[in-house]
Specification:
With 110 residues, the chain is mostly helical. The protein has two domains: 49 residues, no CATH class; 50 residues, no CATH class.
């Protein structure tokens, strides 16, 4: 049941992210994410056959921490604080500030 909910949330987030990107003045337009597929026009996330099921709170928060830390890693070095990354939900979890109306708070799921 949690996997079904997660799939629904992911579908919703993908749709709302696309809608939001269309309203933004971004340097990378949607043509960078165009795919030739029968069921979609764009793909934002890399497909991964090693998907991890978020079967409990510990795993879910571990993955959330990893996602929030990504922009600060040496590889990307986009910001020094996860809350400073424009497209991160880190502010929601650290300061209670949500800049995206389509984001669901993971704390409400567990």
């Amino acid at each position: 049941m949690l996997c079904l909910k997660l799939a629904q949330v992911c579908c919703f987030v993908r749709t709302r992210t696309k809608e939001w990107l269309l309203t933004q003045d971004v340097h990378n337009d949607l043509s960078n994410y165009a795919v030739n597929a029968a069921n979609k026009q764009h793909e934002f996330w890399q497909r991964d056959s090693l998907a991890v099921h978020l079967y409990d709170r510990k795993i879910a928060y571990q993955k959330l921490d990893y996602i929030h830390a990504n922009p600060t890693t040496e590889h990307w070095a986009l910001v020094s604080d996860p809350c400073d990354y424009k497209y991160s939900t880190s502010k929601l979890y650290e300061m209670g500030v949500s800049e995206f109306d389509f984001v669901k708070d993971l704390r409400e799921e567990y």
